[in-house]
Each structure stands twice: as structure tokens, then as C-alpha cells.
């Protein structure tokens, strides 16, 4: 148990969290029931905030960063899991209140684990990661609401070139929806067209002043931006439509009015990926297994080593990352 391994650790330095690589051992890990050897993790916007120190993500320190992981069970005190089981973990407070996936080993609570679908390798599962799994939750929520229909009306995806957006575009397109991709980077149009986007909207068109009711355009939308963008999307959603909101890259405020909701019956559906119940998680992963094109997944994925995390964190915060970043741990 004395063998050490590298972890991306968040520690208190002069009252502020600071990230750095540290050598730790299994004896340093939390006393949870399942020991997992981690193969891959991923880079999400929240990871970028944590590793760069530009956002206080960890609520206690020291903390191993990384909100995703995929790996193999090594030891288990739980009857639900046995050595050799392939598992993934998304959310559950990893990197915030619980040690996360940027380390070779981690001890985890049994209820946090999801069985790796046979359809995916560990690398593919982390190419999907929390971002892709959240996109699937959003698509399921919109379909449950019932107003989006394949081939009828447009479905908007904001932040389309990011991790959530890229997967949402691919899933919605595969299901037959007409997808409008909102992005501020014209150079990503060919990439998004390859994922299935049928048309594009410059994100600047959603960043202006919010008028309470605007021309009805979208039968539904997946929004990972929040703030003014979300307020404008709601004001442009058709009567009875719905917007699944899952992020706040543009801000946590919502400078709109109740007008779209009470005059057009527009629904704002909040989508949480961190504490989603297991049944909802399993359904999201099944949606991904059934409808996510593997070639499109590969097209939106880059694989990097854990040593590159500090540089990658800055890039994702600057909006310079396209699609999904997989982090090799093993």
C-alpha cells in the first residue's frame, strides 16, 4: 500500500485553492467501500475552473480534482460490485466535496458507480463524460416534455461547439431533429455540420438586450450558457415549447421576465447531472448507446495526458477547446 502515484491535488495556499501534481498513496484515499483503478478521466468547464484556480470549486481541501472517471474495480466491500467490474462515475460531488478522478486510484461509495455500458470503451465513456451524459439528460427531458418532433420545428443548441453542445447536436441530429447550432466561432461550422447541425446562429444574436417576447423560433432548446443567452432563447421559444438548461458559462443570472412562461406556456427545465437518480443516469447512458454515432464521437474528441491539465484548463476557460477532451490517467 506504500506505492505512490500522481494526483492533481487542490490545496490551500494563503487561503486560496491552488492546483498541483502531488504523490499520494492508497492509504491517503478516503475510506469508501470500492477501490477503483482509474483508466481515463475528462476535462469539463468546472475542471478548468478548479485546476486554473479561477473558480472555487472545491468546498474542502485538500481535494483531488476531476469530476469524471472510468476504471476497473480493484477491491470492494460492497456486494453490488466485485473486482474486475468496469465502472464510470459522473458528478456526486467529485472535485467539490469528494476526491475526484485525476489520480490512478480512488475510493468511492458504491452508489456513485454506474456500470460501463458494453457499447463503450473507457476512453469513449470519458469522451462522453459529464458533458455528454448531461446532454443526454437534456435531450430526454425535452422529449419527455413532448413538444419537439423529428422533422418539425427547429431545436436550438447554445454553446454548440463545447462538450455539452457537441453531444447534444449529435444526439438530436441522430434522432431526426432539425438542429440550429449557436456558436461564436465560424471556424467550427464544418465541425458542427459534420455532427449534424442543419444551420447556425451567431451567439452575438442571443447576447443583446432581452425583450420579453420575441419572434417564436425554437420548438425546444438545450442551453449550457445561461444569463442573457438563456433569457433570449426563452423569449424566442414557440408556444408550449421547452428549454433544458444545464450550465452557466455566460453567468448565473437570468435577466428575463415571466412573459414567455405565462403568455406562451414556455417551460424552463432545469437539468442537474451531479445528483441525478440512478434510473435517470441509466436512461441517459442508454440514449447515448443507442443514438450517439461513434464516428461523430471520435470527431469531437481529443486525448491528452494528465500532465497537460494546467495548459488545457486555461484553454477551456478561454473557449479555445472544441468538443471533448479525454485525460489518460493510467
Q: Residue share in helices?
A: 25-40%
**Distance N terminus to C terminus?**
17 Å
What oligomeric state do these chains adopt? single chain
Query: Any low-confidence stretches, pLDDT <50, length ≥5?
Result: none
Determine the CATH superfamily of the largest domain.
Medium-chain alcohol dehydrogenases, catalytic domain
Report what the structure shows:
It contains 9 helices and 16 strands. Strands 3, 5, 6, 7, 8, 15 and 16 form a 7-stranded mixed beta sheet that branches. A 6-stranded parallel beta sheet has the order 11-10-9-12-13-14, with helices on both faces. The protein is globular, with a radius of gyration of 20 Å. Helix 1 (45-52) crosses helix 9 (309-317) and helix 2 crosses helix 3 (163-174). It starts with a strand and ends with a strand. It has 2 domains: 4-116 and 300-328, Quinone Oxidoreductase, Chain A, domain 1, CATH 3.90.180; 130-270, NAD(P)-binding Rossmann-like Domain (Rossmann fold, 3-Layer(aba) Sandwich). It is an alpha/beta fold and 330 residues long.
Amino acid at each position: 500500500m506504500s506505492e505512490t502515484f500522481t494526483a492533481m491535488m487542490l490545496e490551500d495556499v494563503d487561503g486560496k485553492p491552488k492546483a498541483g501534481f502531488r504523490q499520494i498513496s492508497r492509504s491517503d484515499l478516503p475510506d469508501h467501500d470500492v477501490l477503483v483503478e482509474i483508466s481515463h478521466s475528462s476535462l469539463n468547464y468546472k475542471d478548468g475552473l478548479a485546476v486554473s484556480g479561477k473558480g472555487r470549486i472545491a468546498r474542502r481541501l485538500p481535494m483531488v480534482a476531476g469530476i469524471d472517471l472510468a476504471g476497473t474495480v480493484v477491491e470492494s466491500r460492497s456486494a453490488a460490485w466485485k473486482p474486475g467490474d468496469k465502472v464510470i462515475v459522473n458528478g456526486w460531488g467529485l472535485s467539490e466535496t469528494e476526491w475526484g478522478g485525476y489520480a490512478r486510484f480512488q475510493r468511492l461509495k458504491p452508489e456513485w458507480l454506474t456500470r460501463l455500458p458494453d457499447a463503450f470503451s473507457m476512453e469513449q465513456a470519458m469522451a462522453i463524460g459529464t458533458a455528454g451524459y448531461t446532454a443526454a439528460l437534456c435531450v430526454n427531458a425535452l422529449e419527455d416534455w413532448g413538444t419537439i418532433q423529428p422533422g418539425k420545428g427547429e431545436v436550438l443548441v447554445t454553446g454548440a461547439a463545447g462538450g455539452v453542445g457537441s453531444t447534444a447536436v449529435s444526439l438530436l441530429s441522430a434522432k431526426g431533429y432539425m438542429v440550429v447550432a449557436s456558436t461564436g466561432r465560424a471556424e467550427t461550422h464544418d465541425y458542427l455540420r459534420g455532427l449534424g447541425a442543419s444551420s447556425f446562429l451567431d451567439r452575438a444574436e442571443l447576447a443583446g438586450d432581452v425583450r420579453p417576447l420575441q419572434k417564436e423560433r425554437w420548438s425546444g432548446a438545450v442551453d449550457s450558457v445561461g444569463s442573457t443567452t438563456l433569457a433570449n432563447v426563452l423569449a424566442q421559444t414557440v408556444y408550449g415549447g421547452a428549454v433544458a438548461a444545464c450550465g452557466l458559462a455566460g453567468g448565473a443570472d437570468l435577466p428575463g421576465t415571466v412573459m414567455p412562461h405565462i403568455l406562451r406556456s414556455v417551460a424552463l427545465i432545469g437539468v442537474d447531472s451531479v445528483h441525478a437518480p440512478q434510473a435517470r443516469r441509466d436512461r441517459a447512458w442508454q440514449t447515448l448507446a443507442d443514438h450517439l454515432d461513434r464516428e461523430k464521437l471520435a470527431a469531437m474528441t481529443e486525448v491528452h495526458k494528465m500532465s497537460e491539465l494546467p495548459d488545457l484548463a486555461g484553454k477551456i476557460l478561454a473557449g479555445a477547446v472544441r468538443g471533448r477532451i479525454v485525460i489518460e490517467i493510467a
